Amino acid sequence: AQSVTQLGSHVSVSEGALVLLRCNYSSSVPPYLFWYVQYPNQGLQLLLKYTSAATLVKGINGFEAEFKKSETSFHLTKPSAHMSDAAEYFCAVSSGNTPLVFGKGTRLSVIA
Amino acid sequence: NAGVTQTPKFQVLKTGQSMTLQCAQDMNHEYMSWYRQDPGMGLRLIHYSVGAGITDQGEVPNGYNVSRSTTEDFPLRLLSAAPSQTSVYFCASSYLLNTEAFFGQGTRLTVV
Hints:
Chain A has 112 residues and is mostly beta strands. Chain A has no helices and eleven strands. Chain B is built from no helices and eleven strands. In chain B, strands 2, 4, 5, 6, 9, 10 and 11 form a seven-stranded mixed sheet that branches. In chain B, strands 1-3-8-7 form a four-stranded antiparallel sheet, with no helix packed on it. Chain B starts with a strand and ends with a strand.
């Protein structure tokens, strides 16, 4: 079975600072990994995904994530936070033949 | 292109009432899922379907029924609503289980 742990339910950064949202996964088979973003009162939209190609994955809005098999991690980063990045972020894992399993989410606040 | 459409957006039920949350997608996706989102719990899988006529249980299926008579529609039925079912419900669809999932805008359900 797959599982996801997101460290930190709430992260606060200053505008222009580095964003780092942590995700560790557990999977008995090579995983497919995803980051989704949810803006207030909206559904989820895909930021980026890892599907066993390049380990460094670039997504929308300047976000990227690095797959590290040895650390079972898929942390999300952005070099410079913008006010519009304030949202909730979810890491998710799939084995390929099971639906997505989500972490509990990390709420990102950006301080002016 | 409408994507994934959920109705209603908001609903208040009394304990013991039944209702159906509607979900339709126009992307010809085989895979559809229902999740519930609760504060601090992330998204938890209720039921999912890998094609018309095929459904399976997720992590939290009790109190919910689903059916998939067409590729486009995947309704979620609450048999006898309970306050514990107060939540935001999301429907999602994808081409494969390891590809991007597209989410509806959610249904906010309150059971009193």
